Amino acid sequence: MIAVIGLVIGVVLGLVLQPTVPAELQPYLPIAVVAALDALFGAVRARLEKKFDDRVFVTSFLFNVLVAAFIVFLGDQLGVGAQLSTAVVVVLGIRIFSNAASIRRHVLKA
Questions:
Q1: What is the pTM of this model?
Q2: Which of 28, 107, 76 has the alpha carbon at shortest distance from 99?
Q3: Residue 3 pLDDT > 80, yes or no?
Q4: Of 59, 79, 56, 55, whose CA–CA distance to 67 is shortest?
Q5: What is the mean pLDDT of the chain?
Q6: Integer Cα distance of 43 and 100 in angstroms
Q7: What angle do CA 66, 48, 108 make, to 5 degrees?
Q8: For 14-36, what is each residue's pLDDT tens digit?
């Protein structure tokens, strides 16, 4: 529940303060958001399965964002940033949909 409250507070602050992202960090923002969503869906799934651990959530959240950003940075340095960005989004998207399906099965008992 604390994660959901934190998410709501973060969204509201973002809408009110309207922060700007420096141009050199803009390519990494969508990847960071997808990585953060992956961690959030994983946390919801773990909570429903009664396996949630706040340390695992925080480290997963930070590690996912850092690794995804590093992969995109590496791709930019190698000249294949778009391809590696797509790969990161696909992998994390699969994980998000897998967690969402598990959440659906748990909530709807189907």
A1: 0.79
A2: 107
A3: no
A4: 59
A5: 90
A6: 11
A7: 120
A8: 999 998 989 988 888 889 889 98
Tally Cβ neighbours within 10 Å of residue 71. Answer: 18
Q: What are phi and psi of 51, to 5 degrees?
A: -120, 10
Please tell me the total number of residues recorded for the chain in this structure.
110
Q: Give SS3 for 73.
A: helix
Whether the pLDDT of residue 110 is over 80: the answer is no
* CA–CA dist 84, 72 (Å, integer): 6
For 1, the token pair is 């529940």
**Residue position matching structure tokens 């189907």:** 110
The encoded tokens of residue 83 equal: 């391809």
Angstrom distance (rounded) from CA 99 to CA 46? 9
What is the CB-side half-sphere exposure of residue 100 using CA atoms within 13 A? 8
Dihedral-angle region of residue 79 (phi above 0 means left; psi in -120 to 50 means alpha; beta otherwise): left
Tokens representing 10 are: 């973060």
